[in-house]
Design goal:
alpha/beta; Rossmann fold; five-stranded parallel β-sheet; 11 strands; binds the ligand Nc1nc(N)c2ncn([C@H]3C[C@H](O)[C@@H](COP(=O)(O)OP(=O)(O)O)O3)c2n1; binds adenosine-5'-diphosphate; GK/Ca_channel_bsu; Guanylate_kinase; Guanylate_kin-like_dom; cytoplasm; GMP kinase activity
Length: 252
């Protein structure tokens, strides 16, 4: 098992990460869709370093009612990351056991490590009427699209490969090998941008936040009018500067 810091209180808020997702059959997927409107599910994808976490940090501050899924990964924790808050850190054998038990909504290999979305906590939040965001890479997003076609999918794109590389380097969290893998993967991912419902440029950070905010607001308003509930409030705006790194700090 990887060496990691427990998030303590945060971990408790995430419920049963090991709950099983419905078996992958057409009938089961139909049942999931009707029980859990996937139009409450927003998938934010895009290359590593494009700014997904940074944009989400701003949006989660505006919309405390929205829940950001905590992924499982075999990647070792970075300094400051904690188990249950940033990720559920696990060794590959435990990860693959969870894959075999059907406990992930989706999973994929990325830059030498496996990443997956524990299905149980998502089902629980969707059933409770929460809007849920997944911050995942492109292959996982594709799997979610197949299983839950009405999930709203947003691809965040960088102004250029040079800018992307500069952002990864400025962040200072990756080795040269990791940077090279991420850049190679990014080239491939960018060719798939058109598969997504929305392609948003993250050049000016506040503009990108506003653009993703508009997508999220539409989802929240649609869900509210469908449920007959009062419109969910839009909190005060949070302005971030270009170097405002997001944590994956999450609450229940
Ligand atoms: N497919 C998939 N499933 C997940 N559950 C998941 N969680 C995170 N990712 C993506 C997000 C990033 O694109 C990469 C790498 O993440 P990492 O935290 O190592 O690096 P950042 O560049 O995002 O800081 O994995 C998932 N993908
Ligand atoms: N629009 C932007 N302009 C300048 N820097 C940005 C912008 N968006 C994000 N960044 C910076 O780029 C780096 C990578 O952002 P991050 O949110 O970690 O990306 P991701 O979550 O997609 O891997 C961080 O240092 C962040 O502060």
């Amino acid at each position: 098992m990887a060496d990691y810091t427990e998030c303590g209180e945060i971990l408790l808020l995430h419920g049963n990460a090991n709950a099983r997702f419905e078996p992958q059959s057409a009938a089961a997927d139909a049942a999931v869709k009707s029980a859990e409107p996937s139009s409450r599910l927003l998938v934010l994808t895009g290359p590593s370093g494009v700014g997904k976490g940074t944009v989400l940090q701003a949006l989660l501050a505006r919309y405390p009612q929205v829940w950001l899924s905590v992924s499982a990964t075999t990647r070792p924790p970075r300094p400051g990351e904690c188990h249950g808050g940033n990720y559920f850190f696990m060794d590959r054998r435990s990860f693959m056991d969870q894959v075999a038990r059907g406990e992930f909504l989706e999973w994929a290999e990325f830059a030498g490590h496996a990443y997956g979305t524990p299905a149980g906590p998502i089902q629980a939040r969707l059933r409770a009427g929460r809007t849920v965001i997944l911050e995942i890479e492109v292959e996982g997003a594709r799997q979610v699209r197949r299983r839950l076609p009405t999930a709203v999918q947003v691809f965040l794109r960088p102004p250029s490969m040079a800018t992307l590389e500069e952002r990864i380097r400025t962040r200072g969290s990756d080795s040269e090998d990791s940077i090279a893998r991420r850049i190679a993967r990014a080239r491939e991912e960018l060719t798939r941008a058109e598969e997504f419902n929305h392609v948003i440029l993250n050049g000016n950070l506040n503009q990108a936040i506003a653009d993703v905010d508009a997508v999220l607001q539409t989802m929240l308003q649609t869900a509210s009018s469908r449920d007959g509930a009062p419109r969910q409030a839009h909190g005060s705006g949070v302005e971030l500067t270009g170097d405002g790194r997001a944590g994956r700090g999450r609450s229940g």
